[in-house]
């Protein structure tokens, strides 16, 4: 059984107290590896290593830092297949998805920030010839990066890469539910010759290792992606310590469909935006609002297509959906399906757990589920389920669609389907979310600001936003 180790000061080490946690394969429900149950002692060693590494790492020329990061991404690209399989075993997502999205995107994240840092420039402000101000941007020091289980290496590198590229040293913690590919990344960092202590990866529970990162006085910035409740706890701890925080949190994203849209394209994409990665993507659309005169057509076609989606072992190339990431999460999703029924929802398709045969008998599989007949403000329609469960609702007017779409405490992303350009622009401005996808979903340009409003988060990642987050600006004013 593979033993995951912490990566501290350039070495793979066990946790100081020797405690370990089980790591499950969601497709079989069996423990297949173990990981460190790290605590503040391990985080302390990681921070000491990062502190020692910081002077040299931050003083390196940008080109040198960039070259080292590109070496890591090059190794990752070479081992894409191995990493894709590991991600699939750890998370339960279909192998085709890890191979085509998760690992390629992790490679792109590193490449993007490694090269972006070479082009980064800060501002100058001329005061009508009386003085010149310029902004110096220096790395913050030690950044803490904490990531979730749904897109494990993809989101881990999305934080770690900009932090390192801008000259910070990092103490990072992947989710305890999916630690494997971050562990494998630490092996690549060693192979690439990343100086010791520059990146430290501490494995363990959020309430223990995660809390130790957030409360450590020498970690000056926290970049976190995960649940809204966890984000609130992190903000409460970090704010009085005056840490910089970037919080990417939950979502309950609306998909607004007008009858004039490109129907086939909308149908194909909405199936994907509902059920890709078993619906375990913060950007998935989970509330589908359909213009009333097209509602029945949508409901029938969408349910028919959903019924045909194959749920199966993640390694099977024909599985559209794999396994749910953990028993706990699987039970949470099932409890929401029960809640939906209790709230008066009608299950149009799905709604049940699936028992696979053979070695997959203990795995956590769910039917993709479509529900109708619920009020827009009930719990099922306002709380994040984060699984293969969507609701559909009819609407009459643009105003009503906006009211429903904006009617939750979340505001991560919205999807809008219409061929009416004026309506699209008008509604995009009024949707209260950090991202609006019009006639598409998950089309990502890494330069754009990424993040949510309301309870979906604080701050933005991506492009210059991430690079600004991981640097401290200093205004220098020179009187002429
Ligand atoms: P989670 O909040 O339970 O855990 C996320 C990470 O935080 C894990 O590494 C966990 O160990 C750690 N953690 C937990 N408690 C902590 C604490 N008190 N202090 C410090 N760290 C702590 O979230 P999850 O269940 O892993 O992920 C699912 C959630 O993430 C969903 O709500 C989803 O919407 C959200 N998410 C958001 C985005 C985004 O970009 N906005 C992307 C992906 C996932």
Characterise this structure:
- The protein has helices at residues 40-59, 62-78, 80-91, 95-119, 152-165, 180-192, 206-215, 228-238, 263-275, 292-307, 327-342, 379-382, 398-405, 421-430, 463-469; strands spanning 2-3, 6-8, 11-13, 20-25, 30-36, 124-126, 131-139, 142-146, 169-173, 199-201, 221-225, 244-248, 253-257, 285-291, 346-349, 353-354, 365-366, 369-372, 389-395, 410-411, 413-417, 435-438, 453-454, 457-458, 471-479.
- A hairpin with a 2-residue loop joins β2 (6-8) and β3.
- The chain is built from 15 helices and 25 strands.
- It is 41% helix and 23% strand.
- It folds into two domains: 2-249 and 456-479, Aldehyde Dehydrogenase, Chain A, domain 1; 253-446, Aldehyde Dehydrogenase, Chain A, domain 2 (3-Layer(aba) Sandwich).
- α1 (40-59) crosses α7, α2 crosses α6 (180-192) and α4 packs parallel to α5.
- With 480 residues, it is of the alpha/beta class.
- It is globular.
- The strands form seven sheets. A seven-stranded mixed β-sheet has the order 15-18-19-14-13-21-22, with helices on both faces. The chain has a six-stranded mixed β-sheet with strand order 10-9-8-11-12-24, sandwiched between helices.
- The structure holds nicotinamide-adenine-dinucleotide.
């Amino acid at each position: 059984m593979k033993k995951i180790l912490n990566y501290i000061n350039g070495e793979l080490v066990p946790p100081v107290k020797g405690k370990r946690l089980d790591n499950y394969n969601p497709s079989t429900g069996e423990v297949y590896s173990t990981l460190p149950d790290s605590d503040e002692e391990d985080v302390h060693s990681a921070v000491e290593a990062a502190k020692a590494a910081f002077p040299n790492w931050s003083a390196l020329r940008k080109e040198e830092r960039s070259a080292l990061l590109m070496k890591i991404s090059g190794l990752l690209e070479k081992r894409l297949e191995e990493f894709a399989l590991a991600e699939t075993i750890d998370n339960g997502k279909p192998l085709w998805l890890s191979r085509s999205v998760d690992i390629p995107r992790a490679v792109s994240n590193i490449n993007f920030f490694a090269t972006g840092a070479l082009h980064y420039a800060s501002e100058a402000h001329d005061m009508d010839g009386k003085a010149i101000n310029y902004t110096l941007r220096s790395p913050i020091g030690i950044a803490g990066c904490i990531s979730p289980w749904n897109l494990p290496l993809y989101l881990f590198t999305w934080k770690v890469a900009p932090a390192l590229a801008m000259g910070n040293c990092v103490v990072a913690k992947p989710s305890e539910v999916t630690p494997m590919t971050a562990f494998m990344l630490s092996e690549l960092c060693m192979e690439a010759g990343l100086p010791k202590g520059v990146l430290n990866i501490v494995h363990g529970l959020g309430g223990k290792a995660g809390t130790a990162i957030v409360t450590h006085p020498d970690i000056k910035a926290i970049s976190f992606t995960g649940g809204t409740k966890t984000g609130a706890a992190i903000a409460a701890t970090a704010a009085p310590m005056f840490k910089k925080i970037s919080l990417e949190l939950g979502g309950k994203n609306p998909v607004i469909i007008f009858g004039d849209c490109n129907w086939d394209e909308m149908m194909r994409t909405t199936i994907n935006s509902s059920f890709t990665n078993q619906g375990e993507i913060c950007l998935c659309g989970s509330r589908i609002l359909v213009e009333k005169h097209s509602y029945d057509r949508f409901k029938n076609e969408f349910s028919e297509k959903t019924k045909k989606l194959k749920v199966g072992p993640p390694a099977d190339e024909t599985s559209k959906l794999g396994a749910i990431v953990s028993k706990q999460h699987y039970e949470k999703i099932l409890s929401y399906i029960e809640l939906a029924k209790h709230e008066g929802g009608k299950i149009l398709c799905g709604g049940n757990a699936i028992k696979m045969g053979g070695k997959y008998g203990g795995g956590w599989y769910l039917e993709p589920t479509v529900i109708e007949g619920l009020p827009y403000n009930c719990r099922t329609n306002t709380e994040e389920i984060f699984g293969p469960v969507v609701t559909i609702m009819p609407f009459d007017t643009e105003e009503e669609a906006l009211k429903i779409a904006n009617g939750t405490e979340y505001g991560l992303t919205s999807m809008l389907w219409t061929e009416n350009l004026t309506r699209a622009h008008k509604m995009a401005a009024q949707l209260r979310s950090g991202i609006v996808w019009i006639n598409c979903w998950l089309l990502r340009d890494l330069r754009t600001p990424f993040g949510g409003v309301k309870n979906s988060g604080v701050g933005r990642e991506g492009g210059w936003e991430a690079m600004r987050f991981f640097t401290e600006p200093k205004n220098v004013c020179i009187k002429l």
